[in-house]
Design a protein that fits this description.
Oligomer: single chain
Helix content: 40-55%
Number of strands: 16
Distance between the termini: 30 Å
Number of helices: 17
Bound molecules: histidyl-adenosine monophosphate
Radius of gyration: 28 Å
């Protein structure tokens, strides 16, 4: 689990603001669900025979209630969707969310036990258009985040009947090879043979080489759905590759499945940025109506490792520097600046002008307002503009106006500040 220190927060806020902006452009509204849900919810939604449910959940019993720190956001979103009867109020629902998720995985670069997901879920449309729009939206977002070498992998798992046929065929193929499989996979041959395709273990990979492909078992409907997703992506000009072996670690998926990778040299292999897909039967499986759905989640820590974006760490825009006994006047001046939306700090430790200027630089401040004995006696302020390299003495009211005007013109007030990029 990580600490995020203040100097890193600029990039976090920037990415979060970009994400919220993207979501609103596509008509998604934010939803916030609890960090803790009942353990059986995750077991039912994600699947008993998944790594997440079998090994990675932080679960506990409290007064005989089985609870789990959410390992992902989809189960909770579907639970909330059902619980609040959302389908009856709005047949088509677009939700986004961001927040901490918890999985007891082996930590490594880009893999943490508490991590942050930015995700979205769309309920109420089974059509291939939303699949393509969602993938394209993500590609746009990753581009704005300046993530290099983005690659989209898509696949289809087919609907439940195609999958059942495939499951049987795969089990039949692997049963004679059972001795070659890892212990986990041997067990999963009974519970969920599709999981074996997702195994990273060398012995499992070897055993599934030459296994029948899911695509041979797809129904005509499943094939045409996938074909339509692809042609919509082509129309949007969104590059993608079909990866027929792509399966994901959660059991709820049906039909379209996708993963997005990028900046591989920074993240290393196996660090997917975004994973998602359709789950047309989860809502019904949790006791809700038959409502199709599709969604995804991106790991924010991974996005930030992958991103080339630099955000300057500006803490304040003005520093008020009392020299000598001018603290009271400086506090008043600083409050007037803040009333105009200027972020500022008063350096009250009685430091020399040189060290005040050093501090101004460290804080990213552009304007320094110096109050020395002479200025105090005359009701003046010395205004130093570190960008324009000017220094002028002027009456207090005028100084206030000049500082506010210059910072406003540079969009450096609290209300006018856009997320900034330096490159
Ligand atoms: P997931 O593939 O398990 O899908 O996770 C999505 C993304 O979360 C991953 O691609 C990765 O970027 C990030 N992530 C997962 N585990 C970790 C970790 N331990 N440390 C850092 N980042 C991590 C889901 O969670 C689904 N709920 C996505 C979804 C939504 N499908 C449909 N709707």
């Amino acid at each position: 689990m990580n600490d995020v220190l203040p100097e890193e927060m600029g990039r976090w806020h920037h990415a979060e603001a970009l994400y919220a902006r993207t979501m609103s452009l596509y008509g998604y509204r934010e939803v916030r669900t609890p960090y803790v849900e009942s353990t059986p919810l995750f077991a039912r939604a994600i699947g008993e025979a998944t790594d997440v449910v079998e090994k990675e959940m932080y679960s506990f019993v409290h007064h005989e209630e089985r609870l789990t720190l959410r390992p992902e956001g989809t189960a909770g979103a579907a639970r909330a969707y059902i619980e609040h009867g959302v389908h009856a109020k709005e047949p088509l629902t677009r939700w986004w969310y961001g927040g901490a998720m918890f999985r007891a995985e082996r930590p490594q670069r880009g893999r943490y036990r508490q991590f942050t997901q930015l995700g979205a879920e769309l309920f109420g449309d089974a059509g291939p258009g939303c699949d393509a729009e969602m993938i394209d939206m993500l590609v746009q977002f990753l581009r704005e985040l300046r993530i290099p070498d983005v690659e989209v992998l898509v696949n289809t798992l087919g609907g439940p009947s195609s999958r059942a046929l495939y499951r049987d065929a795969l089990a039949q193929y692997l049963t004679p090879k059972i001795a070659l499989l890892s212990e986990d996979s041997r067990r999963r041959l009974q519970t969920n043979p599709l999981r074996i395709l997702d195994s990273k273990k060398e012995e499992d990979r070897e055993a599934v080489r030459g296994a029948p492909a899911l695509h041979e078992f797809l129904s005509e409907d499943d094939k045409s759905h996938f074909q339509a997703v692809r042609s919509h992506l082509d129309a949007l000009g969104t590059p993608y590759a079909v990866e027929e072996k792509l399966v994901r670690g959660l059991d709820y998926y049906t039909r379209t499945l996708f993963e997005i990778v990028g900046a591989r040299e920074k993240l290393g292999a196996g660090s997917t940025l975004v994973g998602g897909g359709r789950y047309d039967f989860m809502v019904a499986g949790l006791g809700g109506p038959q409502v199709p759905a599709i969604g995804y989640a991106a790991g924010l820590e991974r996005l930030l490792i992958a991103s080339d974006l630099e955000v300057p760490a500006t803490v304040v825009d003005a520093l008020v520097a009392p020299l000598g006994d001018a603290v009271a006047e400086s506090l008043v001046l600083a409050r007037d600046l803040r009333d105009s939306g200027i972020r500022c700090e008063v350096e009250m430790r009685g430091a020399s002008l040189k060290s005040q200027l050093r501090r101004a630089n460290a804080l990213g401040a552009r304007m320094v307002l110096i109050l020395g004995e002479t200025e105090l006696a005359n009701g003046d302020v010395q205004v130093k503009d570190l960008d324009a390299h000017t220094q002028e003495t002027m009456p207090r009211d005028q100084a206030l106006r000049v500082v506010v005007d210059r910072l406003k013109a540079a969009s450096r007030t609290v209300d006018s500040r856009p997320p900034k990029e330096t490159q």
